[in-house]
Write a structure and sequence with these properties.
single chain; alpha/beta; Rossmann fold; seven-stranded parallel β-sheet; three-stranded mixed β-sheet; 12 helices; globular; binds nicotinamide-adenine-dinucleotide; binds thymidine-5'-diphospho-beta-D-xylose; dTDP_Gluc_deHydtase; lyase; dTDP-glucose 4,6-dehydratase activity
């Protein structure tokens, strides 16, 4: 079969990437979808068992930091589009070890840009390089207001600085070499398959195991939460309808103080687990604040709504319900990703290939 387009999705074994891969493989049987992923601790092919045998899907294990490998992969496959999600994504890890973030998020992104430039050779008809980024590049809101697409960059953590750097390179390649790029900056995602280092799955996992629930500082920090499948839908819309060179902010219009969202998760889980009301809340433990902890993120998503017609489809209560049910029904997944058994398994699976 010949395909109308070859699309490379990077980081497709991760949390958001796996939802994007699923959506594209199922919705576009006419596209050949390549999922390039290094399978770090955060990458998990068990997220994709439902699509792994599809005729329009191929997994490629590899590192976006490896220049020779990336350039050979592009030369061999001549991709028409790139949707770039591969990244080191956890703020606390970036505070412990910033270098990995600089390699993957900045050097890796520039490697991909160079490889795309190399195969497209100024013939950009129908080609797109889409970089999936975060609202954290805008820094922290202190006096109300919202991030818009024109808010100045003011990244505060090594993670957000590395994502800001990658955004700048993507735009610079558009400006300098005319590479057809798209960028989106999205707020906090939640949903099934999120690695349990992030707030919601960490709390869900600890509640299941009756372990302390670590709330940083006073729990007053505010985040805007979007259901991951809605983010994947936005990525689809931007990839197909976005105006080349433009940036789109994506948000859930759903702000929560950390302490309030943690208490809500406790309440929902007490009900589902048949525990006494207040039992999980008693596990909440205030711990040392994150260094340089951004106070508030909030997105003004007017542009994507008005220009591309996208808005979130799920109410938060519904999304949270689906998410909690998924973790309760997939405790083996949770145990695997936290025990390291999965990592060892895939190390063996792929070391010889
Ligand atoms: P994740 O950590 O769950 O997944 C990242 C994936 O990238 C993993 O599968 C990992 O194996 C892969 N990867 C890491 N380094 C690699 C490398 N050097 N080469 C190839 N693959 C590599 O992350 P996520 O939460 O799904 O985030 C995906 C993207 O979306 C990131 O770019 C992130 O900055 C952005 N984003 C995330 C959120 C959020 O709330 N999680 C919000 C906005 C934007
Ligand atoms: O144990 C915890 N206790 C706690 O209070 C953890 C893990 C987090 N927190 C707080 C820190 C944040 O204020 O909860 C909030 C959310 O934390 P994270 O889940 O680590 O997300 P955040 O730092 O907001 O970044 C996320 O959203 C933007 C993603 O991890 C990024 O990849 C994305 O770009």
């Amino acid at each position: 079969k010949t395909f109308s387009k070859k699309i490379l999705i990077t980081g497709g074994a991760g949390f958001i990437g796996s939802h994007v891969v699923r959506l594209f493989v199922n919705k576009y049987p006419d596209y050949m979808i390549y999922n390039l992923d290094k399978l770090t601790y955060a990458g998990n092919l068990a997220n994709l068992t439902d699509v792994e045998k599809a005729p329009n899907y191929k997994f490629v294990k590899g590192d976006i930091v490896d220049t020779g490998f990336i350039s050979a992969l592009f030369n061999e496959n001549k991709f028409d589009g790139v949707i770039h999600l591969a990244a080191e994504s956890h703020v606390d890890r970036s505070i412990e070890n910033p270098m990995e973030f600089i390699f993957t998020n900045i050097v890796g992104t520039v490697n991909l840009l160079n490889a795309a430039k190399g195969i497209w050779k100024d013939n950009y008809d129908g080609k797109v390089f889409y970089h999936v980024s975060t609202d954290e590049v805008y820094g922290s809101l202190h006096d109300g207001g919202f991030f818009t697409e024109t808010t100045s960059y003011d990244p505060q953590s090594p993670y957000s600085a590395s994502k800001a750097g990658s955004d700048h390179f993507v735009r610079a390649y558009h400006n300098t070499y005319k590479i057809p790029v798209l960028v989106s900056n999205c707020s906090n995602n939640y949903g099934q398959n999120q690695f349990p280092e992030k707030l919601l799955p960490l709390m869900i996992n600890n509640i299941i195991n009756k372990k302390p629930l670590p709330v940083y500082g006073k729990g007053e920090n505010v985040r805007d939460w979007l259901y991951v499948v809605d983010h994947a839908r936005a990525i689809d819309v931007i990839f197909h309808k976005g105006k080349i060179g433009e940036t789109y902010n994506i948000g859930g219009n759903n702000e929560w103080k950390n302490i309030d969202i943690v208490k809500l998760v406790c309440k929902v889980m007490d009900q589902k687990l048949g525990r006494a009301s207040g039992e999980s809340e008693s596990l909440i433990t205030y711990v040392k604040d994150r260094a340089g902890h951004d106070l508030r993120y909030a997105i003004d998503a007017t542009k994507i709504k008005q220009e591309l017609g996208w808005e979130p489809s799920l109410q938060f209560e519904e999304g949270l319900n689906i998410t909690v049910d998924w973790y309760l029904n997939n405790q083996e997944w949770l145990e695997n990703v936290t025990s390291g058994a999965y990592q060892n398994y895939y190390q063996l699976q792929y070391s010889s290939k």
